[in-house]
Structures are given as structure tokens and as C-alpha cells.
Amino acid sequence: MNLTTKWSLRMIDLAGGAVVAACLGAFVWFALLRTDRTSDVVGQLRGQLQAARHQARVLRAECDRQRLSLNAHQTELGETGELPVHARVEEYFRNLASLAAQHRVRVMRHNPLASRTYSGLLERRFSYQVTGATVDLARFLRAIELTEFWADVAYLKIEGGPNSAGVLPERVATLTISVFSALAPEEEGRG
């Protein structure tokens, strides 16, 4: 269970506990005073208690939904594998060049950009520029999404449009591709 889910479950438990404690405390306080309004107050407290029970049921249902979502994400992670310790950048770009050729897209430029580090994560970024027909670019981008690598297109800009004769020239797509890997503990202090 990840940290965010643990905190959200704790917050749900705390909220439910606080509501029930407040209702019980108010009930005991009014029961001990025995004023003329006690029966009215008891009725109000019963209503609040019913509302608190309803809220607890809603929170439990949400908790169950979150738990199912977590299980689905864990199953997906188990099917796709773990984050690699070393990014296979060269292999990834060889595959991209092959995908470009398969989809009649030409690679114009491929430049490294500044890397970013996060807690336990290294993001190596690259500028990648290709040209081709709109349909071919769309197929190429779809093929990128289906690759088995820990990589993502973080930025996409497609330029080009009809010329004065109304003919669509080839379009130029500029992508920022992020390739992810686990950050080694000795590198984590440097990031």
C-alpha cells in the first residue's frame, strides 16, 4: 500500500472517529444535565448519529473503492515489470528509429537535454524531431505509446499546414522524450 493511500485511510478513520466521539460526548453531557430540552437534544443527537453512521458508510465505500484501485495498479505494475536500474537509452532510440522507418517518418534531429532527478528516480530527457505525413506521424506516436520501455513523450508540438495551393506538406513533430530509471542511492545525494 503506498503512502498516499495509507494517509487517506488514516484521515478517513480520524474523521469518522472524531464525529462519533463528538456525538457520544455531547450525548453524555446532555444526559447528565437533564434539562427540559433534553428530549429535543437527544432527538438532534440521534439525527447526528444517523448522519455520522451514513457518513461512515460512505467513507467505508470510498475506502473499498480506493483499495480496489490500489490492487488494480499493483496488478498492472506486476504485469509491466519494475523500473529498471539502468535506462536502456541506446536500445530505446534504435527501436524508435525502426518505428519511424516502419511508419514512413524521417528522424531529423535527436539531442540530449538536461536530466532531472526525483526521489529515487532519474529522468533522462531528449529532444526528438521527426517529419512525415499527419497520418504517419499519428501512427508513429501510437507505436511509441505501445513500446515496452519506461519512457514517455513529455512534450509534443506538430507544425505545418496547407500551403497556398491547399496541399498538405509534410508536418514536423518536435517531441521531448523522457526515459526513466531508478536512481542509484549513491547518485541520489548528487541530484
How would you characterize the overall build of this protein?
The chain is of the alpha+beta class and 191 residues long. The chain folds into two domains: 78 residues; 100 residues, Alpha-Beta Plaits (2-Layer Sandwich), CATH 3.30.70.60. The chain has five helices and five strands, in the order αααβββαββα. Strands 1, 2, 3, 4 and 5 form a five-stranded antiparallel sheet that branches. Strand 2 and strand 3 form a beta hairpin. It is elongated. The relative contact order is 0.11. The model has no long low-confidence stretch (mean pLDDT 79).
List the helices and strands and how they pair.
Elements: H1 3-33, H2 38-80, H3 89-102, E1 106-112, E2 116-118, E3 121-132, H4 134-145, E4 151-159, E5 171-182, H5 185-188
Antiparallel strand pairs: 1-3, 2-3, 3-5, 4-5
How would you briefly describe this protein structure?
The protein is α+β, with helices and mostly antiparallel strands.
Write a concise keyword list for the protein shown above:
5-stranded antiparallel β-sheet; 5 strands; alpha+beta; Alpha-Beta Plaits
